[in-house]
Every structure is written in C-alpha cells, then in structure tokens.
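Render this sequence as a predicted structure.
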Amino acid sequence: MFQLPFPVRDANASAGDQPLGNLPEWNLDDLYTGEDAPELKGDLDWLEQACADFASDYEGKLANLDAAGLLGCVLRNEKINQTAGRIMSFAGLRYYQLTTDAGRAKFMSDVQEKITNYTTPLVFFTLELNRLEDEHLDGLLAQNPDLARYKPVFDRIRAMKPYQLSDELEKFLHDLGVVGDAWERLFDETIAGLEFQIDGEPLNIEGTLNLLTDTDRGKRETAARELAEVFGSNIKIFARVHNTQAKEKEILDRWRGMPTPQTGRHLSNHVEPEVVEALRNAVVAAYPKLSHRYYELKRKWLGVDKMQVWDRNAPLPMDDPSIVAWKDAEKTVMEAYNAFDPRMGEIAAPFFSSGWIDAGVKPGKAPGAFAHPTVTNVHPYVMLNYLGKPRDVMTLAHELGHGVHQVLAAGQGEMLSSTPLTLAETASVFGEMLTFRKMLDGAADQNQRKVLLAGKVEDMINTVVRQIAFYDFECKLHEARRGGELTPEDINALWMSVQGESLGPAFEFMEGYETFWTYIPHFVHSPFYVYAYAFGDGLVNALYSVYSEGAEDFEDKYFDMLKAGGSKHHKELLEPFGLDASDPKFWSKGLSMISGFIDELEAMED
C-alpha cells in the first residue's frame, strides 16, 4: 500500500534523540546474485527459447487439444510466467532501492524490453482460449481434476472475451506496452528527482511530505507551501503524463468496446460494478459521520478556527513524540501476530531474519511501502521507509500481512496465487487491526488510549474516505479526458471538486493545494486501483467483527481464505464467515466500526 512517504536519512541515523537501531536491508540473492549472475543469463536464454517453442507447439492448435494436452499447455505457460516474473522482480526491486541510479534504470528497462519481445508470440494463448466454445472447455475440465483447478484462471481470462481484439492487434498492443511503461518511469523519475527547499536545506519529496506530520505547525505550513510551489512548477509534466495515460486508456477501452473506464479494473479485480458502486455510495453517504465529524474533533484539539491541509496529518497535542526503535516495532507486531495464531508468527519470522525487508530511508529509494510477492518458488520482499513513528509500526504490520498472505497463497502456483486487488488488502489490513488492538489493550492510561484511537481513525479515514475521494477524482478525470485535452487547471478543478466534500467544513484550502493530485502514483501506475483499499478496509472491519464475536474455528477459516489466493471469488471466500459483499449492509457494518471509534473519542470529550 502507498503510505505517506518519509524523509531521507541514513538508515542507522537517530530520529529525534533515540536511535532506530540497525534497520534491515534486502538480500536479493534468493532471486539472483547480480546483473551478471550466470543464472540470470541462463533464465533469459531459457525464456527466449521456451516462448518460441510454446508458440510453435500450440499456436492454432488449442481447439484440438484433449484435457491432458491442455493441462500440459497450461503448465508450460505457468513455468514461463514464473521465470519471467523472477527476472522482473529482481530488476524491479533493485530499481526501487535506488530509482535515481541510471544503471539500475537501464537494466530494468532492457530486461523489460527483452521479456516483452520474448513473450509477444504467447499472446495467442488467451485469444485462442477465448475462442473455445463453453461446452468444449467445460467438457475438458470435467475430464481432468488437475486441469479443473485452473477454472478460476480460465473464467478471468474469458471475462475479457467480449472485449478481445484480433490476434494481430493484440500482439501489436502487447509490443506497444513498453511505451506506456516509459510514461510511468517518467513520472517515477520526476517525482524522485524533485527538490524542495526547507529553511535553506534541500529535501526530496519523502522528507518534505514527512514534515506535514511535524509537531511544529509553522514547519508543516512551510512544507505544504513548498510542495505546492514545486508541484506547480512541474505541473505541465504531470498534466502531460496524466493526459497521455488517460488518452491511451480511452483508446484501448474504445477499441475493446468497454462500457466505462472502470470496466477493465473491475474485471481484473473479479468484482461486480454494482458491488463497487455500493461501496462508493456507502462511503460518500458516511462522510458526515466519519471524516467531517472526526476532523471537527481534531480542529478543537489543535485549537484552530479552521483546519488547513497541513493539519490533516498533524500529530495531536497529546501525542507521545518518542521514537519506536526497530526491535520494538518487530516485537510489537510479532506478538500481535502470534497472539492471533502462532502459525502467523511462524510465517512472518523469516522476513526479519532472512533479509526479506528493506526498512531504511535512503537517498534515491522509492517512497512509501509495499510487499512484492516475486514468484511462488521464492518468497515476498517488503519495502518500508521506517522512521520510528507509531504509524510506521502500523505500516510494518500492514506490509507484513501482505507478505504472510503471499506466502500462504504461493501453494496455489503461479497462475492461481495472485489475489484480486479487492481481496489483496485483506491480510494487510487485518494485520494492522491485530497490532492496533494489541497496542490499544496495552494503553497505559486514557490519554494514550485516546491517541491510539485517534491515530487509527485517521488511518481508516485515509484508507476509506481519502481513497474513495481519489476514486471519484479518477472517474471524473477519465470522463473529462474523453472530451479532449485537459489543461493543468482543468485537472486542478477536478481534484478540488472532491476534496471539500470528503474532508468536510472543518477545512479550508490554501492556494496551491489544487496541485496535490500530482504525486499520487496509483493514478499513473494503476488506474482505479484505489477503491481496493476501501474495499479491503470494509471487508476486514466486517471480518474482525466476526472474529471479536468469537466465531467458531475463525483462525482456520481465515488461513483457508488466505491460502486460496486467487482461486475463489469473494462470495466463496466470505461465505464461511456469514458475510456477503454484495449486501449493502455489509459496507455499513464495516463503516460502523470507524463511526464507533469516533463515538468513543467524542465521549472522552465530555
């Protein structure tokens, strides 16, 4: 998940007066030992030949395969995906460690182009699969249980059947993909290269965004205004990237006959449009009892007449400013995971001991945090930008939850392990909730409980309210782009059209805040990704309610859900818990948990 980025510091430097301790770094040797590793060259050579052989053996012949033959075809395709994924994981993780290094950027780009060229002959596979008659494919699946387990993969592929183009056009678009990737890299490298002057000292974007959480309101304002100044100075580049990406998507959607810009995301998430619409409507309707109510409380705590954008993530006056050392963060999260189920702690332990986490904040490192699953015969890697704040501990719990999920789902194999985005946030948000509840139960006094509750509410608002506002902005952006080129001012206006509604009357907005859409990476990398966060948070809140009510065999059912990876639809996964995401009451249940926390905070004011 993309969290609020943090400043660049030496990995073992002190934060405040307390050291963070030794922060772990990735050891990528489990993928490859280096750019010149003979195993890497061997895999690239194998991949080139394997793709050519696959096309030679199967192109134009899928309709004539029996069940055993189709299974063999699928397994070979899976092995190709695994090898390509391993190579790209290595190149990508090295790049994100140091995005400003030209050599790493070139290596990733060169590898990406090679893999694109090698795999272009494989485009026929999904095209021919979609030309099979339903009765024929169903018959093959019925004959072979090993083939039948891939039915969810076939279902997802065949969901694209109405939007499929000719073989020649699909191959052309596959080749052209590297051009779109170049626009994403331009965005990443522009963001990483931005410089902000704060009190005469240069900072990058992580450092400047981090100041928005400083205790000094003057520093927060300085940072916000410098962000606005630099974003404004570079806005033509960001507007060009967004215009180009949105136009490319509009062309693809139009040629494919997709009814809305969101259709492709819904299909890849394996979620019905009406379920997403129900989620969106439930959250928007809840703005007054969630964000509006909470930020009015925060306005009073901060003692200001109006909240400014630099107050949104401000620490509370009663916040504990102490820094959480890395070993203490590890202990907190691991105790929470083990208390839920020792199996979860057992899976999480190697992340800390085996070089699977890169935690330090370093010059040129990508901002934010993520867990990358790599491939099913290796293991995930977690990236953080850890500075010892309590929210950093929650970020660790979040990304470690992703890692645990990815380890458990790996047993499904390369094609079935990948979880749709709507379900991919389940284990991460659940891991956060376990850690939060442990910290809340251990609160020393009412003031500490209040700080923890307020922090959790802010995180939930950032995950639910803010992400749905992002989703609405994207919907408006892509719809407007269909009518022609958008000026920076056009995009600014769309951004502001959702901000007041979502944040509420406690806020007023400084001049320049209209440019703050520029740094959100999901708009460029993964259009409409953002609603998955709200989906995941609502789903976990509902799940946690079932857990806290003492549901029988909850832990076993939970592990079974994670192990399923992408092999089941959300309806099947939630059924054992008595939950149904297509029921509007489902989302109300999740939102009620946030509202309940705000109720408790309001009661503390009496």
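Summary. Residues 67-97 form the longest helix (31 residues). The two ends are 36 Å apart (CA to CA).
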